[in-house]
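Customer ticket, subject: "Can you confirm the structure for Rod shape-determining protein RodA?"

Message body: Hello, I'm evaluating your service for our small team and ran a test protein. I'd like someone to confirm that this is what the system normally returns, since I don't have a reference to compare against.
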Amino acid sequence: MMRLGNFRATDWVLTGTAVLLVLLGMAMVLSTTSDKDLVSARLVRQMLAAVLGLGAYTAVSLFPYHRWRRYVPLIFAASVAALFATSQIAPIIRGTASRLQIGGGLQVQPSEFVKISIVCILAWYFAGRPATGKTIVVSGLLTTLAAGLIILEPDLGAAALLVGAWAGLIIYLGVPWRTISILAAIAAIAALAAWQTSLADYQKQRVLTFLNPAADPLGAGYNVTQSLVALGSGGLFGRGLGHGPQSQLNFLPEQHTDFIVASIGEELGFIGIILLLALYSVLLWRIYAIARETGDPFGKYLAVGVYLLLLGGLFINAGMNMGLLPVTGIPLPLVSYGGSSLVSTFILLGIVQSVRMHSTWVRTPPKELEYVA
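Agent reply: Thanks for trying us out. I re-ran your input and got the following:
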């Protein structure tokens, strides 16, 4: 029997904020694409992805999250298998084998959907378990399995995002800070070893450029230099949509994906950046509020995991746009152009909405949350 009270529990602020971020992203895709033939194709694809994403968001929201809990290990195994297949058969595009061709010129990026499975498997594993050494090791191995396959593509940014979400979850789990310090030291040693043995020359160059972008402004430091120029030229109110020279003249690379924050700063100015951060703040506030209020550990860790992924995506993307982090190719969730990123983010938000609609509550819920037969 349908529980109408669950539908009434929908967090419309969460939904509305997500839609506003998507609309902002579409406006920037339309504005920053100077090729009029290309802009139509990009806008249509992004609109189709938004419709598909909203449909998935609605379906996931309405389906009680605890009903698929038992299938989480299978979901994770399938996503890992998809990652392995991608590393073996995907064509090399811009130096990475991260996209599968599905026909009609469309591509899917499995690493975007692995974000969903890693949140689910960690929430499934952490629920009801204490913060012991075994819990840390097992969850770390699960994360390393997924992150390691992503590194093989190679996509260090996406791998770092997964590891960051895991680290945030074990802190939330209540792992002692002494243990966290030991893990941080191990991570530092592993990073040093990777630098010496695993990183390609162009990946090392990105890190060195981050430390001193002015050393090679026309080469390795070009992207960051142009991003900073775009951000600095926007002023308070920006140059106006479609009037940013860095974006319109293609001085700013990937202005509709990796460097969309710089495009917003150039065309909408400081006010546009504040609007972007305000919308993200509201979105993250609603996700955290849902995590805090639910009494179900599985639902709580699901919401916290989504919170950490979105916060990490914002932090990494904005950081590389401002020259504060190395360029990694992480899109800005809901805003950057890209169908896989948009659909997977909507699914993540649908999981949070499902927790809101179908969870037990720590505090007495408002009257509209009561079940109606």
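A couple of notes from the result: The first helix runs from residue 4 to 8. Confidence is low (pLDDT under 50) at residues 364-373. Feel free to reply with more questions.
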